Amino acid sequence: MNHLFQRRHCLWLLAVSGLPHQALASQEAPDAFIRRITTDTLETIKSDKALRNGDMARIMQLVDGQLMQHVNFRRMTALAVGPSWRKASPEQQKRLQDEFKLLLVRTYAGALGQITDQIVVVKPLRAGQDDRNLVVNTEVRGKGDPIQLDYRLEKTQESSGGWAIFDLNVLGVWLIENYRTQFTKEINAGGIDGLITSLAERNKTNAGGRKA
Fold it and tell me: Domains of the chain: which residue ranges?
C-alpha cells in the first residue's frame, strides 16, 4: 500500500472510536458528538503502546468494545456493497459485515503508530442538514499539513450520543464510494459469494503481514 493511500484512510479507527458517555442522546449536538469521540480516542491511542504497535488483539478490543457503538456498520456495509446487498441472504450479509470490518481493521492497524501529537478541530456545523445524512467537517492537525476528515452521520435513539457514523471522507475520498467501486467489480465477476471469498483471502493476506 502506498503512503498516500495509507494516510488517506489510516484515521478510520481514530474517526469512529471513542469512550462511553453518560449524557442523554437528546442533549448532544452532532458536532459535539464528533468532538467528544475523536478527542477521547486520541487520548486512548496516545496512552496505549500496544495499540500504537499494532497489537491486533488490543485493536480488535478497541473496535468491538468502543467503536461499534458509534457506527451503523450494517448501513456502511450495505452502501459499500450496493444494490446486490438486498439480494444477499442474511448469512451472506453477516459474512460481508464480518469480513469488511476485519479488512478495515487489518489494513489500517499499522497506521496507529503514526498518531503522536495530533488534535482534532471540528468546524462549524452547516445548518439545514438532513438528520439521516448529516456531515460534520473536521481537520486533524499535527506535524505536516492538516488532514481533512469528514463524517456522515444519522440520527439514532441509541445511548451512544444520539448519532451513528456510516461514512467517512479522508482527504476528499469517501470510504463507501472507494470500496463500492472495488466491490462492484468483485460482484460482477463472482457474485456475492465471490466478494466474500475475495475479502476473506485479502484478510488472510493482511494477517500474514502484507497490506491489501
Answer: 3-207
